[in-house]
Design a protein that fits this description.
single chain, 131 residues, alpha/beta, four-stranded mixed β-sheet, globular, Glyas_Bleomycin-R_OHBP_Dase
């Protein structure tokens, strides 16, 4: 058993794809036409870190209730966690790509961590091994 996908509500597909692939280095696994339950067009868009089993389904907001959740899927908390092998290199690359870090790197018992915002404003931890 494993978690295959986690949905992330986004405003638009293409800027979200660009953020996850170009900025974070994820792979675009699938981008297929689809339709909503009532027949409106949408896309099935999946990104995932290279070599990872769990991916993110980028789901464009479909109504006002979903639009209200964009950027606040975890109620203002860090809701997503990206573990990297080389924390310093990843931090420098992301900062150089204009990723917004809302908390600078610090060391915790579980490793190095810095909080950043994704393209929609959700909070993520960038995690690395303890220093």
């Amino acid at each position: 058993m494993n978690i295959d996908l986690v949905a992330l509500i986004v405003e638009e597909y293409d800027p979200a794809i660009a953020f996850f692939t170009d900025t974070l280095g994820f792979d675009l696994v699938e981008d297929s036409p689809s339709s909503t339950g009532d027949g409106r067009p949408k896309r099935w868009v999946v990104v995932r870190p290279p070599g990872a089993r769990t991916g993110i389904l980028l789901a464009r907001a479909d109504n006002e209730h979903q639009r209200a959740a964009i950027g606040d899927q975890a109620g203002g908390r860090v809701g997503f966690f990206l573990r990297v092998d080389d924390f310093d290199a990843a931090y420098r690359r992301m900062a150089g790509a204009s990723v917004t870090f809302v908390r600078p790197p610090r060391t915790e018992p579980y490793g190095r961590v810095a909080v950043f915002l994704d393209v929609s404003g959700n909070r993520w931890d960038l995690l690395g091994a303890p220093a």
